[in-house]
């Protein structure tokens, strides 16, 4: 694995600074308090599109940690600023407020054998708590960065939230030079590629009728079946990984009724924008053709129709593993004695900045996470402090710190001006 020696040296010098050592030790000592705060935040329901209550609590926590200019924007993102000494880049550090669990889910924590069970405890309860413990550690050790830390939480990261929080963030501000989002998982793993996805809700409609009496009427469920048959044999590349899935189907009222509607939701993904567009074009063609084929087979012209609604659009994005933000993250992992692992692409808040050309990584909060997105989601806090320690070192390297280190992260504005 290629690591840039100058960045490795920078991070090493940061990690051996007295104040930084104090901050790293604080993160270890704060592990239990962090778990408790994670449990507290997880216990406030926050389904996608209903993050408001949790967001208000998060805003208060940021305020109590001295974060300035905290704003809750129109969509519910909560961000403030921890000012640096000046003249440095601006880096976002955030986690997401929302969970995949609907309102009414029991989100109260239960301890079993050293693990905390609660839906959302890891994803992204861990990320939210990690951001706060890092702020406490910086404050505790009296660390001033060179650049500004834009710190907070996004909405709408999960499912049909479609990354709308982070999309809104980047559509409304242009002062962001780099971006770190925190998700659950092993601290040595770095996500620097974004999987793009397109999602469609597809509905076939027809006149319907009695299964026997009206036999010969074009049938929406049969059209849906034709479409699925067509989609299910599409060939897609293994690299860049490109996939499809018909994830939900519904329709029909009884066994002896020709249904009036049939519906499905389709998920298309790729690590390449181009392959995603290719796949999308083929699928859209199949969806239309299935209606035509069903009508033609029954000798009808337009009895069955299809309505196609796009319900998801997450941009794909890639950047080089040599990008400074990736290198700083790897150097931070190595400085703590771990072997950095560049993770395969996934779909997180970082997709949006990566797609826009803003350096971004998703880093992991540490501890052991499991059962993510299920009612059995859990978190094991054993030695979880390696997560926030890695992220703290990455933040300090990117923003620059004291006499020890110039910012690794370039200011984007300056870069643009030079070109
Ligand atoms: Zn997440």
Structure report:
- With 419 residues, this protein is α+β, with helices and mostly antiparallel strands.
- Helices cover 36% and strands 23% of the residues.
- It has helices at 5-15, 18-29, 31-42, 52-64, 125-141, 164-172, 220-232, 273-297, 324-335, 351-356, 386-399, 412-418; strands spanning 68-72, 78-82, 90-96, 110-112, 115-117, 148-154, 178-183, 189-191, 196-205, 209-210, 242-251, 257-258, 261-270, 305-314, 341-342, 360-364, 368-370, 378-380.
- Helix 1 crosses helix 11 and helix 9 crosses helix 11 (386-399).
- It is elongated, with a radius of gyration of 24 Å.
- The two termini are 31 Å apart.
- It binds zinc ion.
- Zinc ion is lined by residues 96, 123-124, 157, 183.
- Zinc ion binds at residues 96, 123-124, 157, 183.
Blueprint (SSEs and pairs):
Elements: H1 5-15, H2 18-29, H3 31-42, H4 52-64, E1 68-72, E2 78-82, E3 90-96, E4 110-112, E5 115-117, H5 125-141, E6 148-154, H6 164-172, E7 178-183, E8 189-191, E9 196-205, E10 209-210, H7 220-232, E11 242-251, E12 257-258, E13 261-270, H8 273-297, E14 305-314, H9 324-335, E15 341-342, H10 351-356, E16 360-364, E17 368-370, E18 378-380, H11 386-399, H12 412-418
Parallel strand pairs: 3-6, 3-7, 7-16, 8-15
Antiparallel strand pairs: 1-2, 2-6, 4-5, 5-18, 8-16, 9-13, 9-14, 10-12, 11-13, 17-18
The protein binds zinc ion.
What are the low-pLDDT stretches, counting only 5+ consecutive residues below 50? Answer: none
Shape: elongated
> Radius of gyration, rounded?
24 Å
Bound molecules: zinc ion
The arrangement of helices and strands along the chain is HHHHEEEEEHEHEEEEHEEEHEHEHEEEHH
Number of strands: 18
The separation of the N and C termini measures 31 Å
Mean pLDDT: 95
How many alpha or pi helices? 12
Structural class: alpha+beta
Biggest sheet descriptor:
8 strands, mixed
Proportion of residues in β-strands: 15-25%
Strand order of the largest sheet: 1-2-6-3-7-16-8-15
Give the helix proportion (percent range).
Answer: 25-40%
